[in-house]
Amino acid sequence: MTENSFAAESKLFEALENHSQPCSHNEGRPLFRQGDSPRGVYIVKSGEIALGLKSSSGKQLTVFVAGPGSILGLPAVVGSKPYSLTAVARKISAVRLVPCQEFDDLMQARPSLQFNVLKVLAAEVRSARLALCETVAFSE
After folding, report:
1. Domains of the chain
2. Which residues contact 81 (CB under 8 A, 6 or more apart)?
3. Does the N-terminal or the C-terminal CB of the chain have fewer CB atoms within 10 Å?
4. CB 38 within 8 Å of CB 99
5. What is the pLDDT of residues 20-53, one digit of tens each?
6. Residue 66: is its pLDDT beyond 70?
7. Beta pairing partners, 65
8. What is the pLDDT of residue 2?
C-alpha cells in the first residue's frame, strides 16, 4: 500500500501533538494490542509502526504500515471500544500519546477538528476494504 491511510492533515496532527506526551518505542515493542482498552490516540513522529490483527487461526497478520504523520487508535478512542489492531514498532520510533480524556477535551474545545478526524477514519475504512479485497475473493 503506497498511501498512508493513517496520515492526518497538519492542523489535526499539530493540535494532537500539543496535547500529547512522549512514549518512544523500540523495535518489536507494541504500542497497543488488539482487544486492549484504549489508552488514547498515538501520533507517529518518526519510524514505522506495523499494524496487524490475529486471524481466526491465531496467526498474526500484518495489515498496514504507518509512518511519520500517522494517527493510530482513533476508532477505539472515538468509539470507546477496544483496539481492533495490534500496533508494533518496526524500528526505533518516536511516538506520542494523547490520552483519551485529553483527546475528548480537545475535540470539545475545537469542534472544527472533528471533520479532520472523520477524514482519517474514512481513509482507514477505505484501506481496510482494499486490504480485504486483496485477501478474500468476492463472489456474488
Report:
1. 10-129 (2.60.120.10)
2. 38, 75
3. C
4. no
5. 999 867 778 899 999 999 999 999 999 899 998 8
6. yes
7. 50
8. 34
Q: Record the pTM.
A: 0.85
DSSP string, 121-135: HHHHHHHHHHHHHHH
Nearest alpha-carbon partner for 41 in 95, 88, 99, 112: 99
Compute the distance between CA of residue 88 and CA of residue 54 in angstroms, rounded to an integer.
13
**pLDDT at residue 121 greater than cutoff 80:** yes
* Dihedral sign of CA atoms 21, 105, 103, 115 in order: negative
**Residue burial 36-75, b: 16+ Cβ < 10 Å; e: rest:** eebbbbbbbbebbbbbbbeeeeeeeeebbbbebbbbbbbb
Nearest in space to 88 (alpha carbons), one of 68, 107, 112, 72: 72
